[in-house]
Fold:
Amino acid sequence: MKAIVVTDQAAEAAGITLAERPGPAPGINDVVVEVRASGFVPAEWEWASTWVDRSGRERTQAVIGHEFAGVVASLGYGTTGFSVGQRVFGITDWHRDGTLAEYAGVEARSLAPLPGNVDFTVGASLPISGLTAWQGLFQHGRVRAGQSVLAHGAAGAVGSVVTQLAREFGAYVIGTGRAADRQAALEFGANEFLDLGHDDLGEVGGVDLVFDVIGGEVQRRSANIVRPGGTLVSVVGPVEARPADGLAIDFVVESVPSQLTEIVDRVRDGRLRTHIGTIVTLDDAIPALNPTERRKGKTVIRVRP
Ligand SMILES: NC(=O)c1ccc[n+]([C@@H]2O[C@H](COP(=O)([O-])OP(=O)(O)OC[C@H]3O[C@@H](n4cnc5c(N)ncnc54)[C@H](OP(=O)(O)O)[C@@H]3O)[C@@H](O)[C@H]2O)c1
Structure:
């Protein structure tokens, strides 16, 4: 099968190649998916799981990409709940060969059915940003109606979903980003917008929840504006700054089928809009995967027409 593999972290874009690889064999409780489309998060390049397995051994020629939409091609021993030909979407294990390939092996417990009227390209754009927003807001941030949320990077892939879901659940949302992101953040539903290059975070007063997708100095300044009893949730590594009288949580998103269904239901009925910035084919994908290039919105790779 065709697959996009990485060979050398130091080589950056030059270490990404389109290669011919053996297709995956389904393990116990696995599904092999014929991938139709795959999302891509540029920071994957920096994740340890791209380069070592769960025992710390070096991974050679790892297939990158971890979110996908496709069709079940075969079932492993003992797999229940899915049938060959079924449309599915989800996230594959970070340490396992991924989804920028014609086929991917994935644990059945990580999959949800993809409704027939949702395009594979849309389905592939949802799992990582959708679940990250859902889990950060509701599981870790425990946001409630009437609370205030500072949604960093509100025009980005994760931040745009954070903004929409927080509004839907009755929160007041202050979106942040660069000056050029203002209109997009407001269109995703932010009640107001803060330009991080110009406005002072301190002017915000107190918020109940900060959703951090940026880290560094922005995170440090954000910790100071969390109200007593509030929470700073970060998805960019271990939290470096804690609110004086609140919680700080960092997490890595997990594939939870019931939450995938909540998300895709919202896309179907128009409550949620996905933010796809770039769509390319697998054969033409490599320039779009350059980890040093910034792109607006989610990059989706169409693996099959
Ligand atoms: N832990 C997890 O499970 C998890 C899951 C998903 C994502 N993540 C991480 O979350 C981060 C965001 O992911 P994403 O897919 O949402 O990326 P994205 O689409 O690039 O969104 C990030 C947004 O924040 C903006 N931004 C970044 N730095 C900024 C700054 N200093 N000032 C103002 N705006 C700034 C970006 O603007 P520009 O494009 O102009 O820079 C962009 O609009 C990544 O680091 C990713 O690895 C973690």
